[in-house]
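[step 3/7] fold_predict: job queued, chain A
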Amino acid sequence: MKSLPTVGAPSVGRITPCNERSAAARTMNPVDLLENRLAQAWPPPRWSPVGVLLAVSGGADSVALLRAALARKAPGPGRLVVAHVHHGLRGAEADADEAFVRQLCDELDVACEVGRADVAQLAATEGDGVEAAARAARYAFLQETAGRLGARYVATAHTADDQAETILHRIVRGTGLAGLSGMETSRELCEGVALVRPLLFVRRVEVIDYLSALDQPFREDTSNRDESFTRNRLRRSLLPQLAADYNPGVVEALLRLGRLAGDAQRLIAAQAERLHTDAVREEGSATVVVDCPSLAGVDNYLVRELLMLIWRKRRWPQQVMGLAHWEQLAAMVDPGASETRKSFPHGVDARRTGEQLVLTRPT
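[step 4/7] structure written:
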């Protein structure tokens, strides 16, 4: 199992399928098993000297992350701080979640930062669903809190089961190679802060066994049983049906697919980086110039990957940039492009001028 990369490095983690795990691991007690997995994926000497923000909802996964991180923190000046978000959605149940997290932090002598969001209002204002609005609110709070506290890492408690659900969800909605790769083990959250998922190598049953061995209570979010949410239907209905009727090892199969797709995607990403070095330059903070002759003979798929990389490097919003947008933009690189100017979501203007594609987004 590879460890999570340091801040700013690409994701290289590998989810180890249960049937590949060693006999020693299978006979290890649940506490050592989970804590060892965390330490292998995210070596404590790497993060113990710096500030770490742990996202804790009060559910089993995040409580296990908190207990394991505290157990394996190496001596050092770094501080573990818990971040909890009250989404304003579940009334007294959400209040009880917050109270539970605060009490747990008091018992463990860990500082706790609590944020509040009106997710229903955010969803109505932004036109997104409740799930998307809640996620946006969480990550906004985590980013703001990490910046304010000077944390170098933000850790979330996504597990291997979450990864399998994510991959299946993307397959159902329609996705490409990057989407099939699932969640990254590590990515840059904002400048100087890495988002890490150190339990992405751990199955949910191992989390429950760990907490049971510690006699550690946790909260259960009743909204996770609400099958009006797509993700819940996948978890509660589709995955069990696939396991029962088609493949008992469907979760492991999805994880293996994600691992293989990730291997391929990293090769493509490396090629896109080289193209970026050869063909792209910036002119000021709002303009990017692409040298089209440098891309002559480059496969259209790689051109699209390069364009996506341009967006990511400049943190231009990608949420509503679908495949049709990327194909239209890539077509403008071709010498025989039929369109020489086109507007794209979030204010990006593309102009083909001579042998250059000029991309501009007002700051």
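[step 5/7] annotate
Residues 250-279 form the longest helix (30 residues).
The chain has two domains: 18-246, 279-360.
exit 0
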